[in-house]
Design goal:
Keywords: Membrane, Menaquinone biosynthesis, Transferase, Transmembrane, Transmembrane helix. GO terms for molecular function: prenyltransferase activity. InterPro entries: UbiA_prenyltransferase (IPR000537), UbiA_sf (IPR044878), UBIAD1 (IPR026046). Pathway: Quinol/quinone metabolism; menaquinone biosynthesis. This protein is an all-alpha fold. The chain has a single domain (2-307), classed as Orthogonal Bundle (Farnesyl Diphosphate Synthase). It contains 14 helices and no strands. α13 runs antiparallel to α14. The N and C termini lie far apart (58 Å).
Length: 308
Amino acid sequence: MNRMKLNGRLWSGFWQLADPKIWIASTIPMLIATALAYNKDRAVDWGWVLLALIGIYLIEIGKNAVNEFVDYWTGVDQYVTADKRNPFSGGKKTIIDGKLSMLETAIIALITLAMAFFIGLYIALVRESNVFWIGMLGGFLAVFYSLPPFKFNYNGLGEAAVGLTFGPLMMMGMYVMLTGELDANAAFIGLPLAFLIIAVLWINQYPDYEADMKGGKRNWLVRIGKTRGLKVYAALYAAAYISIAAVALASGNYFWLLGLITIPIAVQAVRIASHNLDNLPQFLQANARTIMIYQLTGVAMIAAALLA
């Protein structure tokens, strides 16, 4: 019975840590790159696509585990009060909830990141060598997002690391694996996603603002404050939509402009956030809309890539 309880706790903690619903953030750029590759060659090897996705999901789990370990160690997770906990706040709270110990979290990080490394190595050796350095750079940014000595998320570089990884890097990595071409255009097409995923990260930092400040997590929202942060939030949307227009103009494929259909939702999200800085339940509607915008824009970009 005790063994069953232990296994149940570990399994529950693992899935809370893995949080598959957030994998959409990495799935979208991978599928856009796949659509681009299909448009180019009129064929895609879905076995390699699946293997690459598994590798990326393992990195996601490992990154979450590292973040969980470091945020508990620094006290950030412990500073989050009960009234501030919500589906959009940072961290998975597995250690706080007693689902996993710090040692178990560290072991999960080591195992999943090692598995991702060997998958990337296999792809590089058998399929496409350029995947190795792209994957290593992405893995480096994921691991040291929270982990010392770099601690990007604690030193004001977390936003840039997330944007680079979930935009140009993933796009270029998947595209080169499928086509064998290291194409800068694939990275360029990833720019709108980079700005939108930073917007997701940015708005999700608001509920954890006080806890991050106490725990020494000096992200840019903590540095400039909530009110000024709203201007950055709006600017991220502007940059995303301008880059979508730039991609359409540069490529001559005006189907990319389908991504602009989310502009009205973005305007709503900025207004909701601006009017509810001190009303967290209402403010969270902006968080939900930001994730929706990322998803809908991603689907529009997949369609545009196929229709080019």
